[in-house]
Request: fold
Amino acid sequence: VLVEDAEFPAMQSFPASLVLRDEHYQLKDFSRSKVRVLARLDPGSVDLKAPLIHRKDGDFPVAWAKSHGKGRVFYSTLGHLPESWDNQVIQRMYFEAIRWALRLTDGDATPVR
Reply:
């Protein structure tokens, strides 16, 4: 996992890069113009020729944020495996994401184009 926005509250506990074993979704109709990508898979860690890989552009976001009306949205693919929830970095990410969504902390969700 590569962090793209280390200043965002949910990403502050992450190192710049981190090896995590997890199940990751490939987002359908994903566009960086609509969300602020906070972290992504290292494209070098993905076999783009594997039969279940549908995204061929190498862009695999694992955490993003956006504003929606007056609300805030945080999304992450991390946490599918039970051992993920014992990882303090993952725990802190979700805790800080909830605080951000509740407007208890500030963080920029403007898409980076």
About this structure: The first strand starts at residue 2 and ends at 3. Strands lie at 2-3, 36-40, 61-68, 71-76. The mean pLDDT is 89. The two ends are 20 Å apart (CA to CA).
